[in-house]
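Technical annex, item 7. During the second reporting period the consortium partners agreed on a shared format for inverse folding records so that results from different sites could be compared directly. Each record opens with the tokenized structure and is followed by the designed sequence. A conforming record, contributed by the partner at site C, is shown below for reference.
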């Protein structure tokens, strides 16, 4: 069974730690409002510019434009804690829900495997869920906000000038509700208990003027809430987001929350500044305000942070963000430096108690950067006798066009989880850029180790009902070896197809079939086990439950991975990416790879046709979804989204052979524009199709939406009925309906592709959530 990490209590601990720190810092807080700098001596803390000497008890607006006069720190602290509690409760709820689902999945996996994939277990798990649960999923958890649109962005296509205005995608219904709750809680916490009738001073009398007192308290509240919100804002942007890891929520969702929290921080800090402006203008007029900004560092750095923040908000608007993402990202990061520096200084000058929140936010940012650097060092730096060496990537244009394959050898072995992605840095293209790409394939070369085949497939008698008696003899066919106990070069990579080729497919299998009456015997030799299985009855439809030979606890097991004892550590781990061409980094990479190929020496095609460039891999990230406990898994990929699905297909097939997953049926639906795009991953598809028992489990449907010339998918149609090629767009509802009817156990549907494909698959899945237990997940390639 796959050893998945149990969700941690870490996020809750971190939250309580934050609150404890805040409380600790607040013990010295005045419970009534006092000026921040009790002894103004006519000099400020910085550069000695004059500060007003105020009598804060006098009924003068000036009191409320300076320091903490009129600011109720006790209430601010209370509402900060409420905000943490609100966010913490959402995280805790998510955590409880995920843990619940995690245990259900784990239990299903354990029972299915332990019950040897019996029809009873599969049937039980194929039953529809409780009505309340399917309603919850249909109308809340999986539902788009409105009708069908979720991931498909709203794009306004102007004809003159020919511009596409990207208005962004809509959040899902659940995310929308979380966002609304968060907005409401901020509005409440910024406005509750404000002294609408005038605040009471330490002398027990109403402060005068009351409007100035109200505005001052509002200024304090909004300023505090803006700084408090920096903590969730920074948590959401971190690639190494431990909260996200614990609740198993992907970066695209955190990114959505990051944007909304950012908007709230902008609104609150603008409100903070406006409140100060109102009192200042009332007290000293616009000239006084200009003068204050001219001479006072406290205001200057506050204004700097404010300007940076407003610019961030403008640049983050979807049309600008998507028009040039790289420009947006660079400006965003630069402006964040100004914003954080400004806020920090603003708080530091007056030693304001909210400093702690700002420091925590900075600590989160620093910790994330440290983790990112450590990941890069771990993956890409090798210490050799000659000195340091870095990873070098090979980038080759793909035959299918529009994409390159980037392969990079990592410096340390890599623990791969399907569904993960990594960030790529290719300094030759842009040293400051890093782009996320799904890890399409991982190949590992092992050290040459002696391994023993500890169990031969010595009995296949239960394999097919047509065989009344069998005598199966596995003999080594290797020309170099003649005994049944063989030495093989076994890589440690559990997925390595060469293992299957050498470990299983290279085993010749002789099957002696005795007729029913026992009078005749037919002997046939197969070149590999897979052919033998297939030949036993190629037309037999897949059974509702696996055939009895798949009984996992039977002694008559087919050769399994655990039968091959590999002791060597892998020598070389190579990570492969398929990168499709867009307009920025990916286009430059594609062009560079094309020109390397074009200038290749025809005499030495191998040497020159591949672009070699320094490339750093940061990752892996994501990979929260596991389909191991689902009997039927449907993976839908649109275009380059296939990179997300391949790892799962390989993992599930491997698990099926190992008896470590509940999956017994895998359907891969791939929608591509041109048939040539199959070449992007054809080598890996070949490897998958060579995996043992693949025919029992896997079906691949490829839809070519704009075929040119041949429609047989460049010879991919057929493959013993495993690969079907269609022309046109798939009708996802019809596709799913067929699978739902023939499902085994619980079902999972996952989609990775353009917004339109994702939304169609989601809509189709929602139609069946009350007919079967169906899990739905999607991976988005944009945010
Ligand atoms: C988790 C994940 C996995 C992905 N896996 C793959 C993959 O396997 N193969 C593949 O071809 N593409 C993949 N992508 C998409 C890929 O990251 C973008 O296509 C690439 O960053 C575009 O770079 P560009 O400069 O050429 O883009 P541009 O032409 O400038 O922009 C194209 C689009 O890409 C998005 N984009 C640009 N830069 C980034 C960035 N740094 N981070 C996030 N989005 C960005 C923009 O929102 C824009 O809409 C993946 C994206 C994500 C989020």
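Designed sequence (site C submission):
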């Amino acid at each position: 069974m796959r050893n998945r990490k149990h969700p941690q209590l870490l996020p809750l601990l971190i939250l309580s730690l934050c609150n404890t720190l805040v409380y600790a810092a607040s013990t010295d807080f005045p419970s009534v409002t006092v000026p921040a700098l009790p002894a103004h001596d006519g000099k400020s803390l910085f550069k000695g510019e004059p500060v007003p000497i105020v009598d804060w008890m006098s009924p003068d607006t000036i009191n409320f434009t300076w320091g903490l006069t009129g600011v109720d720190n006790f209430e601010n602290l209370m509402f900060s804690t409420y905000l943490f509690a609100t966010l913490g409760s959402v995280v805790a709820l998510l955590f409880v829900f995920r843990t619940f689902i995690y245990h259900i999945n784990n239990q299903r996996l354990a029972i299915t495997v332990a019950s040897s994939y019996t029809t009873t277990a599969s049937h039980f798990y194929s039953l529809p869920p409780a009505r309340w649960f399917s309603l919850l999923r249909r109308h809340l958890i999986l539902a788009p906000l409105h009708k069908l649109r979720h991931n498909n962005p709203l794009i306004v296509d102007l004809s003159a000038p020919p511009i596409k205005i990207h208005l962004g995608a809509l959040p899902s219904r659940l995310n929308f509700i979380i966002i609304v709750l968060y907005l409401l809680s901020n509005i409440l916490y910024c406005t509750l208990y404000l002294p609408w009738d005038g605040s009471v001073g330490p002398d027990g009398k109403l402060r005068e003027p009351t409007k100035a007192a109200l505005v001052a308290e509002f200024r304090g509240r909004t300023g505090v809430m803006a700084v408090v919100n920096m903590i969730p804002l920074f948590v959401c942007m971190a690639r190494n987001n431990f909260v996200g890891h614990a609740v198993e929520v992907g970066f695209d969702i955190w990114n959505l929350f990051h944007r909304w929290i950012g908007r709230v921080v902008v609104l609150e800090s603008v409100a903070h500044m406006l409140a100060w402006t109102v009192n200042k203008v009332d007290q000293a007029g616009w000239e006084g305000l200009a003068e204050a900004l001219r001479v006072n560092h406290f205001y200057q750095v506050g204004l700097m942070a404010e300007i940076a923040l407003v610019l961030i908000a403008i640049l983050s608007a979807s049309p600008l963000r998507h028009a040039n993402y790289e420009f947006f990202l660079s400006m965003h990061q630069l402006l964040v430096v100004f914003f954080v520096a400004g806020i920090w200084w603003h708080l530091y000058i007056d030693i304001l108690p909210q400093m702690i929140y700002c420091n925590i936010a900075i600590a989160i940012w620093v910790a994330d950067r440290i983790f990112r650097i450590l990941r890069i060092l771990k993956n890409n730096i090798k210490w050799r006798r000659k000195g340091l060496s870095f990873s070098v990537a090979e980038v080759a244009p793909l035959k299918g066009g529009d994409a390159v394959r980037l392969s990079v050898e990592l410096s340390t072995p890599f623990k791969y989880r399907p569904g993960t992605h990594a960030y790529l840095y290719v300094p030759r293209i842009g040293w400051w850029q890093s782009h996320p790409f799904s890890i399409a394939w991982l190949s590992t070369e092992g050290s040459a180790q002696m391994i023993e085949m500890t169990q031969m497939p010595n009995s296949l008698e239960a394999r097919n009902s047509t065989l009344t008696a069998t005598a199966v003899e596995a003999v080594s066919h290797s020309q170099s070896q003649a005994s049944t106990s063989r030495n093989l070069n076994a890589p440690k990579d559990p997925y390595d197809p060469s293992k299957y080729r050498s470990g299983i497919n290279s085993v010749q299998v002789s099957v002696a079939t005795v007729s029913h009456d026992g009078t005749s015997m037919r002997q046939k030799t197969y070149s590999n086990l897979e052919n033998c299985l297939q030949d036993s009855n190629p037309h037999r439809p897949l059974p509702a439950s696996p055939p009895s030979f798949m009984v996992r606890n039977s002694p008559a097991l087919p050769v399994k991975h655990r039968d091959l004892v590999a002791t060597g550590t892998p020598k070389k781990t190579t990570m492969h990416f398929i990168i499709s061409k867009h307009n920025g980094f990916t286009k430059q990479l594609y062009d560079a790879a094309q020109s390397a190929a074009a200038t290749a020496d025809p005499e030495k095609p191998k040497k020159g046709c591949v672009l070699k460039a320094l490339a750093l891999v940061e990752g892996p990230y994501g990979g929260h979804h596991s389909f191991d406990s689902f009997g039927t898994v449907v993976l839908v990929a649109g275009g380059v989204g296939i990179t997300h699905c391949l790892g799962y297909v390989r993992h599930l097939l491997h698990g099926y052979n190992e008896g470590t997953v509940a999956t017994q049926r895998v359907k891969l639906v791939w929608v591509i524009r041109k048939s040539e795009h199959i070449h992007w991953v054809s080598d890996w598809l070949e490897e998958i199709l060579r995996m043992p028992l693949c025919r029992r489990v896997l079906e691949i449907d490829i839809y070519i939406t704009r075929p040119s010339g041949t429609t047989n998918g460049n010879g991919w149609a057929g493959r013993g009925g495993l690969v079907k090629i269609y022309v046109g767009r798939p009708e996802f509802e019809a596709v799913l309906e067929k699978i739902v009817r023939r499902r085994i156990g619980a079902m999972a549907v996952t989609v990775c592709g353009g917004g339109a494909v994702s939304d169609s698959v989601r809509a189709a899945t929602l139609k069946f959530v009350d007919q079967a237990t169906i899990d739905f997940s999607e991976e988005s390639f944009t945010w």
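The longest strand covers residues 570-580. The mean pLDDT is 78. All partners now use this format for quarterly exchanges.
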